[in-house]
């Protein structure tokens, strides 16, 4: 229905520090005595990329604020909010200035600790604003946040009527605000569910379904399809973990199978770990599938995490004043550097939690990909080493080889010159009881072609921050909990973030990386070991 009478089209420009935002789609407000429509210039011309949102104020019911999102030409969703226009209290001032020749007054408020100025005029017979704030004051010609972010009217144009294709219409269906916001939010990025409340446990009977299960059920793997992605995208893995019977802190890893060579880690999972290339440095042991060779690539480690002591399942075992145990551990990490080996491909992603418990753990895992301008996009990624024995219950031994001076030494070959080379390095120390490498700081040294490149001591002193995730952590007479204790780069309930080690530019040909760590001696039946993973990122 067309509404005739006095109507206006107001065009706005967004600026930051008085500079116009690049590639901005100017805001457009249509307003009359009957309604106000907040849209954009491209949306009015059907040129806005999906999804895009339009807002409506029904002036016959001034508190009725409709939100409509169009997901495609034939799909949209709408909700009605009757409280949004009254949520913020506006303070009117006597300060005035002119905008486009109209005398404007200033109102002020605060939103989420941001100071807001609203400049409005009553010189016209209509009300409206480019945001929900000030809709009923008059016609808002400028909105200022924190003094530097502005939405300013550039033109006020009188029109015969609000165009029929943008005017408020009757909605066949309205959803509640929470449902609306959730669907709109999820439409703005790619969401790839991988596992949903899947069990990771130790069991002789491993069920077979769309999820591959290995090492007596302690490793789960699934093939997922990643669409072609735009340059600059950002990717995150998110894992939610709950104990399903295992009370201990365990090493966990979210990984992706590297498939750039003839043989992959998945081949060893299916055919036996002894079918993969072995690493040996003279300590008398052979370590399958941990280092890159000509023809074989180890797994990419996307995220290393550590389960807390029994979160969720054991929350009722210890009741203390002023402590409310968390229901789950949530881990979320940026993995944008791996998008070049994901985009447009079917990939295998897996999760490992080392445990010997029949109940084990429950996990939910998803990959989300967001449009943006990531600084971590590398066109080339090579998996070099990964000593985390994710197939522990399938024949892959603990990485104890740092007892030898040689430590971990891997050769790799570049088929062309590489620029801005980074070693994405994750390291955590384990074992040995009180004097073992889990609780004793040890220096990690990285050598490139026999030259010391990077040296640091990985250590976490913030473990006490995660006490509420650890309901059955051991408690000592001195008032400390086991989960409070500082450790070699990890805490129960945390992620261990990677180090990005700058290796500069490398010439085509063969190179060698060596990792040296002064591994501690065994204590009786207990021994120390180090889980280290490394991937090369380069241009």
TrEMBL record:
SUPFAM superfamilies xrefs: PHM/PNGase F
Database matches in SMART domains: N-glycanase_N (SM01290)
Domain Peptide-N-glycosidase F N-terminal: 191-369
Keyword annotations: Disulfide bond
Pfam families linked to this entry: N-glycanase_C, N-glycanase_N, PNGase_F-II_N
Top-rank lineage group of the source organism: Bacteria
Gene3D superfamilies attached to this UniProt entry: 2.60.120.230, Peptide-N-glycosidase F, N-terminal domain
Positions in coiled-coil regions: none
One example GO MF annotation: oxidoreductase activity, acting on paired donors, with incorporation or reduction of molecular oxygen, reduced ascorbate as one donor, and incorporation of one atom of oxygen
Protein name per the record: GLPGLI family protein
Organism of this sequence: Sphingobacterium paludis
């Amino acid at each position: 229905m067309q509404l005739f009478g006095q109507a206006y089209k107001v065009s706005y420009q967004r600026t930051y520090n008085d500079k116009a935002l690049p590639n901005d789609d100017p805001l457009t407000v249509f307003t009359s005595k009957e309604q106000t429509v907040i849209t954009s210039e491209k949306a009015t011309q059907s040129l806005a990329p999906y999804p895009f949102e339009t807002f409506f104020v029904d002036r016959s019911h001034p508190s009725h604020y409709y939100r409509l999102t169009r997901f495609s030409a034939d799909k949209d969703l709408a909700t009605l909010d009757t409280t949004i226009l009254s949520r913020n209290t506006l303070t009117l001032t006597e300060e005035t200035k002119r905008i486009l020749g109209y005398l404007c007054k200033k109102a002020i408020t605060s939103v989420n600790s941001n100071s807001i100025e609203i400049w409005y005029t009553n010189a016209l017979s209509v009300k409206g604003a480019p945001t929900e704030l000030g809709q009923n004051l008059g016609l808002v010609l400028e909105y200022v946040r924190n003094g530097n972010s502005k939405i300013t009217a550039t033109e006020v144009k009188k029109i015969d009527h609000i165009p029929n294709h943008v005017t408020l219409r009757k909605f066949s269906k309205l959803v509640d605000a929470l449902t609306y916001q959730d669907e709109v939010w999820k439409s703005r990025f790619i969401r790839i569910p991988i596992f949903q409340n899947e069990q990771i446990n130790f069991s002789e009977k491993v069920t077979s379904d769309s999820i591959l299960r290995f090492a007596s059920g302690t490793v789960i793997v699934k093939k997922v399809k990643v669409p072609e992605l735009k340059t600059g995208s950002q990717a995150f893995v998110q894992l939610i973990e709950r104990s399903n019977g295992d009370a201990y802190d365990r090493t966990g890893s979210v990984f992706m199978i590297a498939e750039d060579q003839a043989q992959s880690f998945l081949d060893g999972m299916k055919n036996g770990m002894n079918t993969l290339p072995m690493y040996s440095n003279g300590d008398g042991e052979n370590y399958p599938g941990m280092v890159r060779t000509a023809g074989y690539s180890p797994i990419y480690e996307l995220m290393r995490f550590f389960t807390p002591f029994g979160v969720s399942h054991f929350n009722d075992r210890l009741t203390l004043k002023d402590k409310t145990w968390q229901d789950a551990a949530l881990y979320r990490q940026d993995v944008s550097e791996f998008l070049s080996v994901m985009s447009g491909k079917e990939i295998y992603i897996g999760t490992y939690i080392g445990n010997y418990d029949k109940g084990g753990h429950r996990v939910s895992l998803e990959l989300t990909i967001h449009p943006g301008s990531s600084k971590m996009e590398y066109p080339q990624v090579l998996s070099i080493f990964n000593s985390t024995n994710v197939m522990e219950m399938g024949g892959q031994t603990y990485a104890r080889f740092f007892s030898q001076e040689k430590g971990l030494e891997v050769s790799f070959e570049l088929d062309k010159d590489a620029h801005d080379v980074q070693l994405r390095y994750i390291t955590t120390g384990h074992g040995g009881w009180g004097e073992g490498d889990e609780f004793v700081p040890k220096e990690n040294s990285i050598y490139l072609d026999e030259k010391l490149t990077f040296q640091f001591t990985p250590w976490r002193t913030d473990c006490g921050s995660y006490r509420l995730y650890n309901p059955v952590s051991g408690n000592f007479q001195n008032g400390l909990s086991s989960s409070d204790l500082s450790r070699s780069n990890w805490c129960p309930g945390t992620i261990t973030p990677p180090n990005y080690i700058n290796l500069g530019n490398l010439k085509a040909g063969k190179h060698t990386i060596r990792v040296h760590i002064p591994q501690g001696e065994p204590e009786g039946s207990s021994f120390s070991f180090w889980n280290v993973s490394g991937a090369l990122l380069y241009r």
